[in-house]
Structure formats: C-alpha cells, structure tokens
Here is the input.
Amino acid sequence: MNDFPVLRGGRIVYLDSASTTLRPRRVIRAAARFSQNCGLGPHRAYYKLGGAAEESYAQARRTAAGFIGARPEEIVFVKNATEGLNLLALGLFQEPALKTSPALPGAGDKAALPLSEHHSNFLPWIRAVEKAGGKTEILYPGETGLPSPGEIETKIGPGVRVAAFALVS
Here is the structure.
C-alpha cells in the first residue's frame, strides 16, 4: 500500500481498477521525469526532444513485451481496457468491403459471448459483428450464473471465430 500515495492511511479499499487504475509512486515519478525532461508525444518531431520521446516510447514497448513474452511490435498502448477491446473487435470483424484477409472474421461469422459479460467485453463484439454482417451467439447463464457445459457445446461450434469470456467481472 505504501506504493500508492492515494491509499495513504489504509482507510480506502479501491475496487474500480477497470475504470481507472491507481498509479504507484514509481509510475508517478517516471511520468513526472518524462514531463520535465521531454514532454512530447512520440512520432511527432525530428529534433532532440522528439528523439527522446521516441526512445522512451520504444523502451516502454520493449519492457512491456519482455514482461509478457511478446515482441515489441506486438504491443499496442491504449488508454483503457474498453478502448483496447473496441479496437480489437473492430479490427478483427471488418466490414466486408474493408476485409484485408480471409483469415479475419467477417460476414456470416459468429462471436460467442456469455450474457453475464461486462458491457466493456460485450458491446464491442456485438457492434463489430453486426457491422461485418456476422451473428452473435449469446450464452445464457445456468444455475451457477455461468453458461453450462451444454450451452457452451451448443453455441460454440462451426462459424464461431471469437469466444470472449472475462476471467473476472
């Protein structure tokens, strides 16, 4: 708790990280250092400060990639999970006229989603699938509040290109 200044005193329990993630001291210091020493957005300038911004951005991508075992070019920074899911959904389910690869889902393809999903993992897929001319398979909760194995077997079959289940909601 000492890493998070806003939690000083120990009287706050914060459970809204999906909306806004609290920043630890280390991140606050790094952001302040960047703002004081550079302050520019990457990909904007071809002079010394622009180069510093580029290198900071590239280093952050390398660090994130190393942390999850990816290549730096596979890292995409977004402002929150909702924006990331929207970009992913719209990028995968493209309108037929914009479809760049037969490997990408499109018209006639389906996405399977539990009805219990949070809107941030539910609405982006529905919108993207509809825009592409596909169909959404809704998995309804059983007695446990989760889709039953039978529901999963029935709904996730041929034509389902994406099944989006959150680990925790």
